[in-house]
Structures are given as C-alpha cells and as structure tokens.
Amino acid sequence: MKNCLRELRKAQGLNQAELADRLEISRQTIIAIEADKYDPSLPMAYRMAAFFDVPVETLFLNPWKATGTGV
Amino acid sequence: MSHRTKYWMLCALAFGASALAGVIIGKTVPAGGASGNAALLFPLLLGVCGLVMAAGWLWWRNTDDLQQQGQLISWYWGGTFGALAMLVYLAVFFGRHSDLSLGATYLFFAQVGGFFIVWLVWRLRGRGQSE
C-alpha cells in the first residue's frame, strides 16, 4: 500500500531506527512499510498516524478511494 | 531501556530457556530405554516445556506485526514441509515401521494435534454475534 511514511519521518528528523524505537516496532518493519512491501495491521497504522498526528489516510493512501470504485 | 534492547534481551531469554530445558532433559532422561520413574518425570519435564513456552511468549509479545507474520508463515510452510520431507525420508530409508519413522510420526501427530487445539481456541476467541 502506498504511503508517505518516509516523508513524514524525515520531516520529523528521525532515522528509521529512531522511529522504530519510538513506535516500539522493529526497524525492519519501518523499512518494509516505506518500501511498500508490507501493509501494517489497523492498530499499527493508527499508532503510526497518531505518532505523526495525521489521519490514517494521510499516511496510508486508500487505493480504493482514489479509483472511486470502492472494490 | 530502548525497545530494541528489550527485544533482544527477551529473545536471548527465550533461547536461553530452550537451551536450559535441553540440558535438563538431557541430564534427567536416559539415553536408551524408558526412564525409571516416567510417570513423575513426564509431567515434570512438561512443566519445564511450559516455562520455555512462557519465555517464548514474553518475546512474542514484544514482536510487531511483521515479525509475527514472518514467524507464522515460516513455521507453517517451512516447518510443515520440513517435517513432511523428513518423515518421507525416514520411511523410505529406514522402513515405515522403524523406530525412527514411528517416533517422527508421533511427533508429527502431536504437531497436528497442537495445531488443531490452538486453531480451535483462535476460532472461538474470534467469534462475534451473527445477524
């Protein structure tokens, strides 16, 4: 799933290891999400969004909403 | 303490507990033949296995989605295929009714049994109200 985690992380001046430690997850997970290789669970997505103080859909782009099909 | 440090400490605890359990089992169970007081030793060693699982659980709670998914996929597909491949190997090279094949078969049945118990618990815990 496309996301702007890297941009938000860099805007906070954090490296991947620092962000991982702040979110209490692994650096490997941050790397995988930034590379669009892994979609986090809903709780983790909300936790990340809360950390950056943005709505979830700002962090993770909703592909179904973009196409307008909803399927 | 950082999350990373805590994670590796719990990981070391889980592996340390496994190694310790291996030593305890190795010291208490005879190399050949049944144990003299099997009725006492079996529940005792099951308790030791329980402590290993508890240590593993502490580590598991500290892992995130991706790490858990990696473990689950690897154990399910890798572990199952590895066990089946070994089972077939032992049957082919040592005979279906050899001690080795039977021992491996019991282990595999225990694994399947454990799978169904945990799956059932997972299924029941995930139940919601149907409308």
From TrEMBL, chain A:
The keyword DNA-binding applies. SMART domains: HTH_XRE. It comes from Erythrobacter ramosus. It comes from the Bacteria. Keywords: DNA-binding. Residues 5-59 form the HTH cro/C1-type domain. One of its GO terms (molecular function) is DNA binding. Transmembrane segments: none annotated. This is Helix-turn-helix domain-containing protein. Pfam families: HTH_3. The keyword Ribosomal protein does not apply. InterPro entries: Cro/C1-type_HTH, Lambda_DNA-bd_dom_sf.
UniProtKB/TrEMBL annotation, chain B:
The chain crosses the membrane at residues 36-60, 72-94, 100-122. Keywords: Membrane, Signal, Transmembrane, Transmembrane helix. Residues 1-21 form the signal peptide. This is Uncharacterized protein. The lineage of its organism: Bacteria, Pseudomonadati, Pseudomonadota, Alphaproteobacteria, Sphingomonadales.
